[in-house]
Amino acid sequence: MTSVLLGDAHGISVVDFKPFLDGSAKQDVANAILDSFKRVGFVYLINHGIPEEQIKGMFDWSKRFFAQPMEVKQQAPHPPSGTHHRGYSAPGQEKVVQHVYDDNELKDVRAKAPDVKESFECGWEDNAGMPNIWLPDGILPGFKEACTEFYWTCHETELQVLRAITIGLGIGEDYLVKYHHGHHNQLRLLHYPSVSAAQLKDEKIARIGAHSDFGSITLLLQDDAGGLEVEDPNNPGEFKSAPPVAGALVVNAGDFMMRWSNDVLRSTVHRVRAPSNAKTVDGMVPDRYSIPYFCSPELTAVVECLPGTYTADKPPKYPPISAGEYILRRLASNY
């Protein structure tokens, strides 16, 4: 396994994904990914299969979109309903919610401060239940096509990561793939404007407050600004930096995957703050851009704990659940 491990970033494994993609060391890569997911819920993948030029192009489109005047961006408005996660959200519109169990009762704990970020979200173009919301024709031509192409490129990498998870668990490599057709994923472009370093430090404002993702897995591309932090699973409340790693795709497990895996895989709380080594200008933290791709199963799926995650001595902790019921509730709680 050591040959596929390229390093460690504050406890998160950096894994070479190429030997999985070319078949030369699939089991070793799968084991390394699963180990990192079990320990901390995150992994960095190098040689992940998403073309570098396409990534650069998508970041360029993101910067062009967010550079538009507010009145232009608001011509593709995110609906008031949190269950329709499409279109543009202005800074402060969304406030993340952390999903917790208290005395076995499911509760949503809302963040104290609004997130100072803006976002644009899109999904499967033919999703009649959650149609995309684009800018009017003639404004930023080519943006829609770039987003749609990138969406499906990310889906191909999603499927490979899901195959690695199931191989690591010792079950058929297409076990999770058959539930994930890409119809309910979400591509999000994120821009964190330059803000006061002092206000961030004093938590008067937030970039993204502490939360966990709620789907199957999340693929994350980030620029080199830094600021992503992951909670130490063994020390709640203690966060460690998940710094940018050149050429890496960050992948983390979501709450639904943790439940699906009978808590074998961790869905870890994370947040975005000002990096400790941030170079401020006149007391301001520079802009940050990132592109998360949130992966969810088909909403019609009813799932139960994965084979290989339970035994007679360690039975399933959770009954079967509808993916649609779970995910739509989590979407609605963010607005």
From TrEMBL:
Q: Which domain of life is it from?
A: Eukaryota
Alphabetically, the GO molecular function entries are: dioxygenase activity; metal ion binding
Which region is the signal sequence? Answer: none
Q: Which UniProt keywords apply?
A: Dioxygenase, Iron, Metal-binding, Oxidoreductase
* The keyword Oxidoreductase is assigned to this record: yes
Keyword Metal-binding present in the record's keywords: the answer is: yes
Domain Fe2OG dioxygenase intervals? 183-297
- Short name of one Pfam family: 2OG-FeII_Oxy
- Entry's family note: Belongs to the iron/ascorbate-dependent oxidoreductase family.
Q: What is this protein called?
A: Thymine dioxygenase
Source organism per entry reads Polyporus arcularius HHB13444
